[in-house]
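hiii so um. not sure if this is the right channel but i have a protein structure encoded as tokens and i wanna go backwards to a sequence. like what aa goes where. can anyone help
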């Protein structure tokens, strides 16, 4: 006989349906017996999905009003980090800053002054704009959130064997990169 496994959400749904059926059966049985005792239902525990967002720490440095370490909520963007640091100074190279880029725990957002070459692309820092998958160096790829040196090497090796990327989704062919990581890279990379 073939076996199958239910996912956690499917098991929860099945348990909720079973509880509803049981409650309805008890209610009907109680009603058929002519009873008038109220049926008591235990409160349901709050969902884990409503848990508070995780806090991350980001180092904001360079041409900002108050450089330093800042606590942000998970899912924050470079714009949030710069705002917490008091904003850009009048010397900041604004055109080189991708304010929409997501930030990760332990990342450094380094905003360069005009004429200094934009935002740093060293590992762990925010990049100045979308990184080209078809021409980026290992170091540039390594600076992306969720891409380490090993994965960066795999991207370059794949590019050398298969030619330039035609879409960001083509990253799915590289072992260790799946739909979730590709979604995190949207806006940060271009083919």
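sure thing!! here u go:
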């Amino acid at each position: 006989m073939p076996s199958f496994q239910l996912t956690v959400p499917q098991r929860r749904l099945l348990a909720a349906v079973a509880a509803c059926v049981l409650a309805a059966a008890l209610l009907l049985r109680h009603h058929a017996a002519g009873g008038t005792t109220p049926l008591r239902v235990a409160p349901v525990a709050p969902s884990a999905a409503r848990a508070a967002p995780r806090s991350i720490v980001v180092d904001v440095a360079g041409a900002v009003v108050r450089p330093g370490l800042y606590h942000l909520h998970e899912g924050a963007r470079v714009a949030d980090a710069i705002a917490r640091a008091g904003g850009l100074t009048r010397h900041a190279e604004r055109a080189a800053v991708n304010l929409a880029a997501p930030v990760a725990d332990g990342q450094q957002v380094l905003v360069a002054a005009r004429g200094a070459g934009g935002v740093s692309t060293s590992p762990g820092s925010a990049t100045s704009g979308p990184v080209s998958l078809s021409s980026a160096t290992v170091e540039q790829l390594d600076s992306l959130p969720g891409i380490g040196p090993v994965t960066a090497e795999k991207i370059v090796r794949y590019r050398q064997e298969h030619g330039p990327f035609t879409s960001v989704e083509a990253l799915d062919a590289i072992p260790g990169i799946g739909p979730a990581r590709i979604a995190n890279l949207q806006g940060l990379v271009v083919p």
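oh and The mean pLDDT is 78.
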